[in-house]
């Protein structure tokens, strides 16, 4: 697993995000527009040519491989390509997770046409992905080390409608490197999907040791 600190300062990261996040929002809007457009074929053909030109322009300078998860100098992860929360990833729902003092995490999200499974309803895989992300984050943030999903059990209580949804997750217990977590998705009527996860802080993961060492160095330099 790759671990690297970014060369960018906090101001440079904020500046980059101020440009990139609106671009991601526009591409997300494009995806929705393509799904729901009813314009004529000639407009679609012209749109494709314009989009291809934009892609060619962006390919002018590309990072090899995936985005990865670089860390800021304060050791905050920057998972900008992440499938569920990536700030550069227009496929990711606009999920923004809030972490609370009691160790829980919540998110409010509006899922549109791009996340449909059954007609008018959220795709079950999307629900599982969002819950998986929230379970991973609630443990990783509250424990201070990255945790992987070992086992994820999802229960679909009733259909989840597209539109505004609330998510919540909390850690319910732990045994050594294993953390037991619960999460749910709710619409206005209450929970539609629940998930139980066993999240694991992997053994002998170089990134853990590296994080611990860097945290200790940062703490010492702050004294
Ligand atoms: C901020 C971050 C947000 C991230 C959000 C996204 C979350 C994700 O999607 S993560 C990606 C999906 N998950 C993966 O790819 C994980 C793949 N699996 C692995 O890497 C490893 O098998 C891993 C890390 C789960 C366990 O590896 P390792 O640390 O070697 O475990 P190991 O030493 O064998 O076992 C440790 C304990 O966990 C248990 N365990 C191991 N694997 C599992 C499992 N899959 N399910 C349940 N328990 C397990 C063992 O039984 C053992 O328990 P005990 O201590 O009671 O005997």
From TrEMBL:
It is found in: Cell projection, Ruffle membrane; Cytoplasm; Membrane. Residues 120-193 form the Thioesterase domain. Its main location: membrane. InterPro entries: HotDog_dom_sf (IPR029069), THEM4/THEM5_acyl-CoA_thioest (IPR052365), Thioestr_dom (IPR006683). It is a peripheral membrane protein. The keyword Magnesium does not apply. Its EC number is 3.1.2.2. Keywords: Apoptosis, Cell membrane, Cell projection, Cytoplasm, Fatty acid metabolism, Hydrolase, Lipid metabolism, Membrane, Transit peptide. It is an enzyme of class 3 (hydrolase). The keyword Transcription regulation does not apply. GO terms for molecular function: hydrolase activity. Transmembrane segments: none annotated. It catalyses: (9Z)-octadecenoyl-CoA + H2O = (9Z)-octadecenoate + CoA + H(+); decanoyl-CoA + H2O = decanoate + CoA + H(+); octanoyl-CoA + H2O = octanoate + CoA + H(+); hexadecanoyl-CoA + H2O = hexadecanoate + CoA + H(+). It comes from the Bacteria. One of its GO terms (biological process) is fatty acid metabolic process. PANTHER family: ACYL-COENZYME A THIOESTERASE THEM4 (PTHR12418:SF19). Belongs to the THEM4/THEM5 thioesterase family. This is Acyl-coenzyme A thioesterase THEM4. It comes from Gordonia phthalatica.
